[in-house]
């Protein structure tokens, strides 16, 4: 059976496109036909995840589940979700599909442990921090962690939404200032939002969940699942 990757996308659209291009560039191919079959459902109408977590917006879960089921029905054999905050709904999503959904948060924590890092700094949305997605995952591997103070976190959110609005350079500068404030105090920095990844992926000491999940997908084979 062919491996077909289904991408639950649109959160946000540019981050979804960035994931796709980076996946293609990571594959070792000599012709078009060697690339992985990928189906992308970039539904930008999925409600804001952080807004819902803070009680300020509609529940995004129904539309995320619709996307997952649509991809499975289209023939996907493994799913990936290109939004860190959306992993708050991971356990509920997998109840509605019969194919694997890669857990970006868990994969990042395992990667950091495998690399031997003892401390990590988390750059992420307010929603991801509030729900302790990365904090709980890192605790399981005895990795110490921290995240920005309130003023810096405000800048993180502004930077994320500037990139979502297409103001990439302005957003990048805001995010880079936060990165520079904290990077020397930790062994690695998690780019825990795909818009942050767009801005900071080429800087030193970063752990980019997009890269981690791409490498895991490239290891996947339909008969044996994920090689550990």
Strand content: 5-15%
State the helicity in percent bands.
Answer: 40-55%
Tell me, what is the CATH class of the largest domain? Alpha Beta
Structural class category? alpha/beta
CATH architecture of the largest domain: 3-Layer(aba) Sandwich
Fold and architecture overview:
The protein has 228 residues and is α/β, with parallel strands linked by helices. It folds into two domains: 109 residues, Rossmann fold (3-Layer(aba) Sandwich); 104 residues, Rossmann fold (3-Layer(aba) Sandwich). 48% of the residues lie in helices and 14% in strands. Strands 5-4-6-7 form a four-stranded parallel beta sheet, sandwiched between helices. β1, α1 and β2 form a beta-alpha-beta unit. α1 crosses α10, α1 crosses α11 and α5 packs across α7. The longest helix has 15 residues. It is globular, with a radius of gyration of 17 Å. It starts with a strand and ends in a 9-residue tail after the last helix.
Short overview:
With 228 residues, this protein is α/β, with parallel strands linked by helices.
Mind sketching the topology for me?
Blueprint: E1 4-9, H1 13-26, E2 37-42, H2 49-53, H3 61-73, E3 78-81, H4 90-94, H5 104-115, E4 119-124, H6 126-130, H7 133-139, E5 144-146, H8 150-164, H9 168-182, E6 188-192, H10 194-200, E7 206-207, H11 209-219
Parallel strand pairs: 1-2, 1-3, 4-5, 4-6, 6-7
Helix pairs in contact: 1-10, 1-11, 5-7, 5-11, 8-9, 8-10, 9-10
